Amino acid sequence: xxxxxxxxxxxxxxxxxLTPQRIxxxxxxxxxxxxxxxxxxxxxxxAKYANVNISTVYRTLELLKRLGLVTETDMGExxxxxxxxxxxxxxxxxxxxxxxxxxxxxxxLSSVKDVLLREYGFIADLKHLAIFGRCVNCRK
Length: 140
Hints:
Blueprint (H helix, E strand, L loop, with lengths): L6 H7 L6 H11 L5 E2 H11 L5 H13 L3 E5 L5 E5 L5 E6 L5 E5 L4 H11 L9 E4 L7
Parallel strand pairs: 4-6
Antiparallel strand pairs: 1-3, 2-3, 4-5
């Protein structure tokens, strides 16, 4: 059910209990090919275990965020999405017109990070972010 080295393994290593509900939530996150919302996680879990509450999903996501195991990104659609930290850092260009999402490599923002440190003495946490604008197709 869970990939070796996935979120479940890390949570267990940190001494947290792996209840059946928590295991299903972690599995939904680990097995997602893309970013996943709390509502999408809840829909997957409740289909298998009817006695779970969406507040359990939110509490688990808050714990994972606090422990640095998932990132939280607002893609501009009215809800945040989650992504396992172990699947790498990347960023997104989000078209405000058509909704297209383009992945942006982390290295593209390294110069921004350097400028923020040099000019402002600010250490930016650029693990995961969305930049909004218009894609090439919508600019035509």
